Amino acid sequence: MMLVNAKRVSEAPAPYGRRRQRASLPRRRKPRLYFDEQLPISIVERLQQQHSGKFNVVHAISSGNSGREDQFHYEFARRTHRILVSRDSHYLDDRKFPLHMSPGVVVIDVSPPNEDEKLTRVLWHFLDFMRTAGHQYAARTKFVASEDHLDRMYATKSGAYSERLDWAKV
Q1: Which pTM value belongs to this model?
Q2: pLDDT over 90 for what percent of the chain?
């Protein structure tokens, strides 16, 4: 016998009952990410190689969405239930991209020199954070990820809030 959801279940074949109980167990899904054209596709390819199976990643170019407006990328991410990852700070404008409708937006903020190296490091920090926090943490949330901290703006039924998380403490 084994315990499932604090109930005893027989090891004897009971396919219908067993499937039903397994379906009720919480499943941890891979975070689904959508990278717009502001981020190099080489980073996405490296992410897929090094973190294979941990994230479901799509890039605007590989999905045939290159040359589109910001609004299209935002709606595509929302429609496909993906967290939008970009370097474009326009996504932080709540009038154009409402927080309460956000699929989750991450704006990566790095400055020269060594932008690609810093971009990769900040992205890895954020992805580690998402893996531990869970993808549902990003819904109706906008993040600004920089070299030393993560700003989180989020909406709840009682209002909009913001907080700063230092990478060293995350």
Answers
A1: 0.79
A2: 41
